[in-house]
Specification:
Strand order of the largest sheet: 1-2-7-8-9-10-11
Radius of gyration: 30 Å
Distance between the termini: 80 Å
Number of helices: 16
Number of strands: 35
Shape: flat
Bound molecules: MU-OXO-diiron
Length: 619
């Protein structure tokens, strides 16, 4: 019986799942199965995007027939020639004799290499940026060589802003009834398998993935339909940002992956002690026994973590066999930009450490710590200092922002390493952030608006939880940002910044303010731009909430220069005047409010501008 899933009014998933496959490509175990995705576009013309693996051929053909109904198939787009997506081409040609096969020249060559049927009469060759009109939709073909094979191309449907992404953005794991990534707990249940898919299938081709990401960066993408795994229609930017990290060989997290090879448990023991010492310092660790865990999982973890430790016994005068395979695998997947430490073991002639070092030295930008801990059969008490030193050396390469427990002699306390004045060296603009809840309009001054992506066009704003505007955005999920210009008088900052909207009408006397399409007021004077945001994600960050928002409207209001925080301090804000007499107290560097008294509580919040004690200085 067919099983199809509707993706939009005229796009249907006609793929199938395989949970019996033991080894994908004969190499990668797939305990959660795998999906082979194929999509059917039902426009004035009908278009099938790729086919499936032979294991699920029957279900796929039933699905295509059910989705087409009485219609004929006009086009088959072959984006990727690997047989798990192409082996059913011949059956499609037999069942739908008028169908045209749309592919590039390399794909045609490879079809002829793999299969023995006459495809020439069916073929339409496309090149970079060629298009195919199918009625309401226009398909744009974008070449993506080596993501994963040389013939790969992706297809962009500019009508629905859907990307048919071939192997890119795919993942291991069968689709369990759902079709969209946002229908499942993707981070918990699928992210590891998606990373494992990326690292092992296309990890070697980071530059080529980057080239594709570059081509995609100037188009709006509202949905991604890959050949394996779930379809993306929400939080697409989050997933693309994973690809930016992975393709740049940048770690996702600060922490240490420890892979060990141990015959009698002694090398494992050293690795466990190192892991424990690192945990004592607040460093996350993940451990793998290379004799037990498939290499593909360890390669994937190496793409995740910032630091790698390899602990291996010496075997046949070389590296233990499973460890040697892992190191070779990592090098051939182009692992880069990591800090590495090595532990070796050898009862009479330890060689594994230097051999691992020599292998990894060929990889780009791998910082291998100088000292190898060398064990003779089993770790002895006297050698614990070497393990401690390795833990210290690894910890020393973590950035302050990783927030480690830096205890111990010679360590500098984290608080001593953070001079908050460095924060003032960041450049900021200044903005009026406005919101509307029912009949209530409100606004506040903020300095934290950033464009975070082009596709989709998205910004972030960080807002103090003490502000009423914060609560209104939390409730309504919508706001406007008015970008203040250098002509802004101090009175605007007083009006929106120095009072609470809980007891004042921030817009009193502002009849000049206008409403944008979302119904929220914005400030059209002393500003140069207005951006409306619809919140897509909310991140709690202590004193502030970070709102991530899609841009729904944007206007250029004037050509005046944007005001910077520095310009505000130098040219707009009146210099704070200390009170006359010999009063003791603290003055807010932001708004000039004076708190009288001998001491300023650490948790003091300025009642005018809501900045904390850190922004006060003694009178
Ligand atoms: Fe499932 Fe490279 O293909």
């Amino acid at each position: 019986m067919h099983l199809i899933k509707r993706i939009s009014d005229d796009l249907v998933w006609v793929g199938a799942n395989d949970r019996r496959l033991a080894m994908f490509e004969g190499v990668y175990s797939v305990p959660d199965g795998v999906s082979y995705n194929s999509y059917l576009l039902l426009d004035e013309k009908t278009v099938l995007f790729d086919t499936v693996d032979k294991a699920v051929q029957q279900r796929f053909l039933e699905n295509v027939a059910a989705a087409l109904g009485a219609r004929k198939l006009d086009y088959l787009v072959v984006q990727h020639m690997e047989p798990d997506h192409s082996i059913v081409i011949r059956e499609i040609l037999c069942l739908y004799p008028g169908v045209k096969v749309v592919c590039n020249a390399k794909t045609l060559t490879m079809i002829k290499q793999f299969y023995n049927f006459d495809i020439d009469p069916h073929v339409i060759i496309v090149n970079e940026n060629d298009t195919l009109d199918t009625g309401r939709h226009t398909l744009h073909f974008i070449m993506a060589p080596m993501v994963h094979w040389p013939e790969v191309m992706v297809t962009y449907d500019s009508a629905d802003k859907t990307l048919f992404s071939a192997d890119a953005f795919g993942g291991f794991g069968a689709l369990n009834g759902a079709i969209f990534a946002d229908e499942v707990d993707f981070d918990k249940d699928y992210m590891d398998e998606s990373r494992r898919y990326y690292a092992n299938i296309v990890g070697k081709y980071g530059d080529q993935v980057r080239a594709l990401l570059g081509k995609l960066s100037c188009i709006q993408i509202d949905a991604i339909c890959p050949l394996h795994g779930y379809v993306w229609r929400r939080n697409i930017g989050d997933y693309i940002s994973k690809y930016v990290l992975w393709s740049g060989y940048e770690p996702e997290e600060h922490g240490v992956m420890i892979a060990y090879a141990s015959v009698y448990g002694n090398t494992e023991n050293a690795a466990e002690i190192l892991s424990s010492r690192l945990r004592d310092k607040g460093i996350k660790t993940q451990m793998f026994d290379v004799s037990v865990t498939p290499a593909s999982e360890i390669v994937s973890a190496a793409f995740r973590w910032s630091h790698l430790v390899f602990a291996s016994t010496t075997y046949n005068a070389g590296i233990f066999v499973a460890m040697e395979a892992l190191i070779t695998d990592l090098a051939s997947h182009n692992i880069q930009n990591r800090t590495v430490a090595i532990i070796e073991n050898g009862s009479w002639a330890a060689t594994s450490g230097n051999l691992i070092r020599n292998h990894l030295a060929k990889c780009k930008n791998i910082n291998i710590l100088d000292s190898i801990v060398s064990i003779k059969s089993g770790l002895k008490a006297a050698q614990l200092t070497e393990i401690d030193a390795m833990a210290d050396a690894l910890a020393a390469t973590f950035p302050v922002s990783a927030g480690l427990n830096q205890g111990g002699a010679g360590d500098t306390a984290a608080s001593d390493m953070v001079d908050s004045n460095a924060m003032f060296k960041l450049s900021y603009g200044l903005f009026v952030l406005t919101a509307k809840d029912g009949a209530k309009d409100n606004g506040c001054i903020i300095n934290t608006v950033t464009q975070i992506s082009l596709t989709p066009l998205r910004i972030s704003v960080a807002v103090s939880k003490a502000n009423l505007t914060h609560d209104m955005i939390l409730k309504t999920k919508a706001f406007n940002v008015s970008v203040l210009s250098e002509s802004a008088p101090f009175s605007i900052f007083q009006q929106f910044g120095f009072h609470s909207g809980k007891d004042t009408d921030k817009f009193a006397g502002c009849a000049y303010c206008k409403r944008s399409a979302n119904g929220i007021l914005y400030v059209p004077k002393h500003t140069n731009g207005m951006i409306s945001g619809k919140v897509t994600e909310i991140i709690d960050s202590g004193s502030h909430t970070l709102f991530i928002a899609d841009v729904t409207q944007a206007l250029v209001v004037s050509n005046e220069k944007s005001v910077t925080y520095q310009y505000y301090f130098d040219h707009i804000k009146p210099k704070p005047q200390p009170p006359k007499g010999d009063k003791k107290g603290f003055i807010c560097k932001i708004c000039g409010y004076v708190h009288e008294g001998e001491e300023l509580p650490e948790d003091f919040i300025c009642p005018l501008c809501k900045h904390g004690a850190i922004d006060f200085e003694p009178l």
